[in-house]
Specification:
mainly alpha
Length: 213
Amino acid sequence: MKGLTPEGRAFTYSAAMCQVALDRAATIGERLGLPGRVAHWRASADRLRRHILEQSWDEDAQTLSAHLDGGGALDASLLALPLREVVPADHPRMAATCAAVAERLSAGDGLLYRYLHEESPDGLAGDEGAFVLCSFWLVDNLTAQGRVDEAEELYASLCARASPLGLLSEQIHPSTGKFMGNFPQAFSHIGIIASGVNLARAQVRGRPGVVAP
């Protein structure tokens, strides 16, 4: 994903990936005692996390937004923030965002659009199908929030959409269930594996845990 829209607006997900880079660099430096501006990286990572939570939050829409200047537009990539350990899945603002994505980006029957063209025009012609990986991100958020029964139900419905060979496409047509986009798609299979691991851990340990796809 690009860091800026054509209008110069910063994507929240892009800022989150910068936070991940700073956080992981600081963690490696701390654990291994490596030289570098470790304290500065840690402080910058913490500051950027706070900036994301504050600047992308839309009070009226009660959700984090696709862009750092707010505005309420949604992108399902926001569901990946807990998976990258940027924001905990049970943080009130993240939980509200998860609910908003599940409602406003729903394509029906557990499928999610990545974003809505009328809210986030991308300049590309034609309509897109539901992006399969986004639904697995939703499974992971529900699991991490302790809503394991809901996560299991959604996960089972997604697995049931696989081909007779157990393969999934990049996208699914919401009305017909027809596969769209790349097939088979590695992203979709990474999602099915990671979500399965998360659910298995939650069942065994009796508490949420997240593996990032």
